[in-house]
Amino acid sequence: xxxxxxxxxxxxxxxxxxxxxxxxxxxxxxxxxxxxxxxxxxxxxxxxxxxxxxxxxxxxxxxxxxxxxxxxxxxxxxxxxxxxxxxxxxxxxxxxxxxxxxxxxxxxxxxxxxxxxxxxxxxxxxxxxxxxxxxxxxxxxxxxxxxxxxxxxxxxxxxxxxxxxxxxxxxxxxxxxxxxxxxxxxxxxxxxxxxxxxxxxxxxxxxxxxxxxxxxxxxxxxxxxxxxxxxxxxxxxxxxxxxxxxxxxxxxxxxxxxxxxxxxxxxxxxxxxx
Amino acid sequence: xxxxxxxxxxxxxxxxxxxxxxxxxxxxxxxxxxxxxxxxxxxxxxxxxxxxxxxxxxxxxxxxxxxxxxxxxxxxxxxxxxxxxxxxxxxxxxxxxxxxxxxxxxxxxxxxxxxxxxxxxxxxxxxxxxxxxxxxxxxxxxxxxxxxxxxxxxxxxxxxxx
Lengths: 274, 162
Hints:
The complex is a heterodimer. Chain A is mainly β. Chain A has two helices and 16 strands. The radius of gyration of chain A is 34 Å and the shape is rod-shaped. In chain B, helix 1 runs antiparallel to helix 2 (58-77), helix 2 (58-77) packs antiparallel against helix 3 and helix 3 (84-104) runs antiparallel to helix 5. Chain B is elongated. The two termini of chain B are 33 Å apart. Strand 7 of chain A pairs antiparallel with strand 2 of chain B, so a sheet runs across the interface.
């Protein structure tokens, strides 16, 4: 009976096998990383190609003595990897460099292949002593700083920052109160007061402007109301007579104006009278 | 009936001549230099020409790339010898050092000229994964060095089977 042929073992020694195992593992890591990086590169290119689109912004007066700047940002992730922890911050400074408003959205996760719209609503306080009060009467450039943070493809935290100067058209640009010479009528003192301004804002103004003239000791001397119907980029110029309280002197006093537009009540910066 | 003989490991092997190994290593050196020096330096030079700050200096890339390529070539030539393990360790150690240098500068701030746009990209986590590769080859090299010390030429039949 023939003997079976001896089976020559090709099994390498243990140390050789361990070394080979490490080398093969390294090779697997290289292959996985290469494929991952190639797909991340392609996905990032697709993402950047469909860069975030602004849906436009609108400004209006809000009921809480603020200017509301609202808009949205559409972000499309056409790549193969998610964008996680996506947040966006806006900071706006006026022409003097004072911070007048901030807004933060997110964080949110944008899945691969998804598109999202990020709403942005920024409320700028315009009360007389606030840093944004100058927005009412002064055209200026606003410095808009945008910060965005996200992690792309699990491994890459990214932070984007840019500054842009945006022109701001004041809704009551060049606001002026002109008090004319007083006259006597029916035993009362009457002064003609002319209010003028330009609406450089992107919205029309339809409402009323209430004006109070005050003496130097802040006592109200008289008031008057002007009807407003000013289109965007329009000019307002109107004169009304104000009946002054008996014995009230306007010398060194002030003119306080409050505008009511719909549900919004907007105090305008007071003006000192000569 | 006599018992069948115990299977034993083959002992025959065929080591290529030194000249052949040098020739093959030289041919292997070309793609290595392109991969580790040529392409990265070209990319960095392009960024520099656009006025964009670089994440790592071109000199660092050149020195590390050339060093790793040369060591890798020497490792290939010395594979049948006892110097293979130590040279492999040196190659892996230099690679680990290179990745650690890159890791220390892994937050890349891209500033475009004449633009307020600034982009910070952090690729530390990627480099930590990349670090796995030279770390694993370093372990492999250590094991090979031990193997060569304990049983010289034991691995040759498997590295260069006849």
